[in-house]
Amino acid sequence: MLRYFVADLHLDDKRPDIIRAFVHFLQEKAATADELYLLGDIFEAWIGDDAPPPSLQSVYDTLHQLSSASVRLFFQHGNRDFLVGEAFMHQIGAELLPEVHALETPHGTTLLLHGDQLCQDDAAYQAFRQQVRNPQWQAAFLSKSVAERLDVARQLRAASREQGAQKAEYITDVTPSAVSDLMEQHQALLMIHGHTHRPRMHTNQSPQGGVRIVLGDWDASAWYLEQDEEGSRHFAFKLPDGNPQTAELQDFLAAAD
C-alpha cells in the first residue's frame, strides 16, 4: 500500500507556479499511489461548491483523472477550505473525511487531521473556528451571492493575516497536551497534520511515545509525505519557473515505526 499526504498548498490564481507544481505532482507521483490524502488548506479559499475558482480547472481535471484510474482520493477540511462539500467530492471522485480520522496501517493507528484544532492556546481562533464550522453559519453564508461571499472571504483573510502577525509563535503552534490527549484517546502511534507550516518530525508526543509528523506547506518548495510498508518519509521539491523537475530536497524523517 503506497500513500501520499499533502496539506497547505493554498492554491490560488496568484500562484500559478504552485498550481503547475501540484498538477505535476499528481501526474508523476500520486498517479503511482494507491491512496492520496489531501489534509486541508488545499485551497486558499473556498466559498462553496457552486463557485469553484476557475483558475484551478487543471487541478480538478487531474484529480478526477486519478480517481478514475483507481487512485483513492480523500479530502479533509482545513481552516481555509472548510466549505468544500459533497458536490465537489463527487466532481473529483473523492471521499470527505471527518475532522479526525483514524487510519489503520501496518505501523498501527495513524491519526490524520488538518491540525488547527490542536492550537488550543489560540482562544480567539478557536472561537472563530467554532463559529464558521456551525451549520447555521455556513447555511447563512452559502445563501449569499457569489460576490458577497467573495467579499466576506477577502475580509476574513485580511483579518487572519493581521491577527496572525500579532501573535506569539507558541500561540500559533499546537498545544502539546491537545496532541497527547488525542493520541492517547485513539491509542495512536503516529499523527500526521499540517496547518502550522513547520515541517518536522516530533517524537515522544504521547504516553505511548507517539510520533507526530507536520506536513510542510507549498511555497518555495512543495512538500509531500510518502508512506508504505517500510514507514513514512517527508520530501520536497523546489518550485522553479516553468515545468518543475521533481528532486528530493530532504529526507529527514526516518521510518515512523
TrEMBL record:
Localization: Cell inner membrane
Entry EC number(s): 3.6.1.54
GO molecular function: hydrolase activity
UniProt binding sites for Mn(2+) 2: D41, N79, H114, H195
Cofactor(s) named in the record: Mn(2+)
Broad enzyme group: hydrolase
Positions that bind Mn(2+) 1: D8, H10, D41, H197
Residue span, Calcineurin-like phosphoesterase domain: 4-199
Domain of life: Bacteria
Pathway terms, separated by semicolons: Glycolipid biosynthesis; lipid IV(A) biosynthesis; lipid IV(A) from (3R)-3-hydroxytetradecanoyl-[acyl-carrier-protein] and UDP-N-acetyl-alpha-D-glucosamine: step 4/6
Catalysed reactions listed for this entry: UDP-2-N,3-O-bis[(3R)-3-hydroxytetradecanoyl]-alpha-D-glucosamine + H2O = 2-N,3-O-bis[(3R)-3-hydroxytetradecanoyl]-alpha-D-glucosaminyl 1-phosphate + UMP + 2 H(+)
Function text: Hydrolyzes the pyrophosphate bond of UDP-2,3-diacylglucosamine to yield 2,3-diacylglucosamine 1-phosphate (lipid X) and UMP by catalyzing the attack of water at the alpha-P atom. Involved in the biosynthesis of lipid A, a phosphorylated glycolipid that anchors the lipopolysaccharide to the outer membrane of the cell.
Name by which UniProt lists this protein: UDP-2,3-diacylglucosamine hydrolase
CDD domains: MPP_YbbF-LpxH
Lineage: Bacteria, Pseudomonadati, Pseudomonadota, Gammaproteobacteria, Oceanospirillales
Pfam family name, one: Metallophos
InterPro entries in the record: Calcineurin-like_PHP, LpxH-like, Metallo-depent_PP-like, UDP-diacylglucosamine_Hdrlase
Provenance organism: Marinobacterium alkalitolerans
Family (UniProt): Belongs to the LpxH family.
Keywords of the record: Cell inner membrane, Cell membrane, Hydrolase, Lipid A biosynthesis, Lipid biosynthesis, Lipid metabolism, Manganese, Membrane, Metal-binding
